[in-house]
């Protein structure tokens, strides 16, 4: 991996007008959603080049409160940025666009960084209590292609890991072609299946091709960067208290017991409780499902308080150790999944701002709850009362 470098704050451009303080903004009259049965323009979401410029401007305007680095590089050499704000001993790690066609999380992170870099008393109090580390658009090759998978061939993997010569490609290697995506000519991997709870894991031929209920391998440069950031934070702070992964899901899920389309789903369950299964027994002392549940309730309550309806609980009973969420939950982080309604291929500008604002409000539920300590007073059993997501009939 190339050496990290601090971004220069010279030669920046003005931020777009959308980078405003979101937590205090006026509540929209309608709940966020996505137009039905349309393929609409996704212009207006931040691309990779714009991301670097916006982060530069945020770092400059914050006068050092927000620090921006290049944490590493994608397979095609694009920067993976790391932004840090705050000096508290509780660490919140935020990640967006591990799937490149799921961009609302990046916009929300930029708005939050912009606010937390100000002299606002609220921002100052948060900075004193927590350290927030953000990896916006961590899969930039996929983002530039507006697709889920990165841009990496199996031959390139074998070049990096010669011990895998002659091994079948992983189960999450995309080579198909349809009307929307062409992985046949430009293959790639679902990076969110390339994580392993053993943060020092080295790929072994016997672990391939694997499946969804088995750990990943850290064969993609993007997952390696995230792992290394996580390990560095562990070394510096002792643990990463909170990990949040910002995703999108299909547009036509409903809130259980209603006909209401889901705004977004949340979850804190990605692997079975290690205390109940031998499979993850070595992580029993670090896994903290109750804290993950408290964090999710904090998100739900924050959205309800602001009038954002149709927040549901993502399907439970999962066993996905190869996801970033599953891996970091086993390593002791309280984990939260956001699954916003609609991929970019079905999302238009009309609802973009509303969805981004909803994500921001959910994230502030976590940030405020951890910084003022109220999240620790939440009864984790309230998590079980969040209405489930169901498929449209």
What this model shows, in words?
The protein is α/β, with parallel strands linked by helices and 393 residues long. It is built from 9 helices and 13 strands. It has helices spanning 48-61, 104-116, 121-129, 140-145, 154-160, 221-237, 289-305, 324-330, 349-372; strands at residues 5-6, 66-73, 79-85, 90-96, 130-135, 173-174, 188-189, 242-249, 253-255, 264-267, 311-313, 334-341, 389-391. Strands 1-2-3-5-4-8-12-10-11 form a 9-stranded mixed sheet, with helices on both faces. Strands 6-7 form a two-stranded antiparallel sheet. Helix 7 links the parallel strand 10 and strand 11 (311-313). Helix 2 (104-116) crosses helix 9 (349-372) and helix 7 packs across helix 9. It starts with a strand and ends with a strand. Residues 1-42 have low confidence and may be disordered.
In summary, what is this structure?
The protein is α/β, with parallel strands linked by helices and 393 residues long. Helices cover 29% and strands 16% of the residues.
Order of helices and strands: EHEEEHHEHHEEHEEEHEHEHE
Q: Give me the Rg, rounded.
A: 20 Å
Profile the largest sheet: 9 strands, mixed
How much of the residues is beta strand, in percent? 15-25%
Q: With helices defined by DSSP (H or I, 4 residues minimum), what is the helix count?
A: 9
- What is the global morphology? globular
């Amino acid at each position: 991996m190339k050496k990290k470098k601090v971004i220069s704050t010279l030669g920046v451009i003005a931020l777009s007008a959308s980078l405003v303080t979101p937590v205090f903004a006026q509540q929209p009259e309608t709940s966020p959603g996505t137009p039905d049965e349309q393929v609409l323009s996704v212009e207006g979401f931040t691309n990779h080049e714009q991301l670097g410029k916006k982060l530069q401007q945020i770092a400059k305007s914050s006068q050092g409160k927000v620090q921006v680095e290049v944490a590493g590089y994608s397979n095609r050499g694009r920067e993976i940025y790391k932004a840090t704000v705050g000096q508290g001993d509780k660490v919140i790690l935020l990640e967006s666009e591990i799937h490149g066609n799921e961009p609302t999380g990046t916009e929300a992170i930029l708005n939050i960084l912009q606010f937390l870099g100000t002299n606002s008393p609220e921002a100052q109090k948060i900075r004193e209590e927590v350290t927030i580390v953000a990896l916006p658009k961590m899969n930039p090759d996929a983002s530039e292609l507006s697709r889920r998978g990165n841009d990496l061939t199996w031959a390139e993997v074998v070049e990096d890991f010669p011990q895998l010569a002659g091994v079948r490609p992983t189960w999450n290697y995309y080579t198909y072609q349809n009307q929307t995506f062409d992985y046949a000519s430009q293959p790639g991997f679902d990076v969110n299946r390339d994580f392993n709870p053993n943060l020092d894991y080295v790929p072994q031929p016997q672990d391939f091709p694997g499946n969804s209920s088995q750990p990943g391998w850290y064969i993609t440069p993007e997952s390696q960067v995230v792992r290394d950031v996580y390990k560095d934070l562990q070394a510096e702070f002792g643990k990463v208290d909170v990990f949040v992964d910002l995703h999108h899901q299909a547009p036509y899920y409903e809130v259980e017991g209603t006909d209401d389309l889901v705004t977004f789903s949340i979850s804190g369950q990605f692997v079975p409780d290690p205390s109940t299964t031998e499979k993850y027994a070595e992580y029993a002392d670090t896994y903290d499902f109750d804290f993950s549940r408290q964090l999710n309730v904090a998100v739900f309550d924050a959205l309800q308080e602001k009038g954002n309806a149709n927040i549901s609980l993502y399907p439970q009973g999962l066993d996905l150790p190869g996801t970033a969420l599953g891996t970091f939950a086993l390593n002791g982080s309280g984990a939260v999944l956001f699954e916003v309604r609609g991929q970019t291929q079905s999302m238009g500008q009309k609802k973009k701002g509303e969805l981004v604002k909803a994500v921001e409000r959910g994230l502030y539920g976590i940030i405020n709850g951890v910084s003022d300590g109220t999240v620790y007073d939440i009864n984790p059993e309230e998590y079980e009362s969040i209405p489930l997501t169901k498929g449209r009939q």
